[in-house]
Amino acid sequence: MPTLARLSAQCPLERLLAGGAVSLSDAELLAMLLRTRKPTAAAIARAGALLAGFGTLSGLFSAPRALLLQTPGIGKTGWCSLQAALETSRRSLAGDLHHRDVLNSPEEVGRYLALSLQHSPSEIFAILFLDSRNRLIGAEELFRGTLTQTVVYPREVVRRALERNAASVILAHNHPSGIAEPSQADRQLTEALKRALQYLDIAVLDHLIIAGGHHYSFAAHGLL
After folding, report:
1. Helix (H) or strand (E) segment spanning residue 124
2. Does pTM surpass 0.70?
3. Which of 55, 70, 151, 223 is deepest in the core (most CB within 10 A)?
4. CB atoms within 10 A of CB 102
């Protein structure tokens, strides 16, 4: 097995093959996403400069599309690569949730929702629709709002749950502010949706707030 010293001396591609993607820095990973050829020191330096400009990888992924398309070193090809990476990760996690009880995989649910919601500059309200064995039927973004709020219509939530033939649901939305704490409005909405769905024997298993790389679970905090 390669030693740490030897791994650090190898180029990013060699270290990825030898030690996995976890062995690469953020700048090296970004350089690989933005280039189809073997990443050079110059490419890694440019990726590091991009990260410095956007703050973090999350900040980069959260940046407006128009800005990224105009950013030297990213452009249309780079933006497409970043989106493909995100969507590949989302689909991989969703595929796992289709075949297992999501209540036994809370961290995977959190990661899936984080990939789907945390990079949006505006609030998004989404729902995971589950079958009677708590397996994922599908996930939908139902409402999109502003930086600070989203208008959610319970009638539309109920309609989609019925159309999906869901036995239960997990509610989710993001806080672009980065603070993963429920507001009073979040609590009231959760209670209203829980009441509306329970008349149809559709259970609300959780409501997750995604923010700043973290998530807040209503169920874990005894709010359901």
Report:
1. strand 124-130
2. yes
3. 223
4. 22
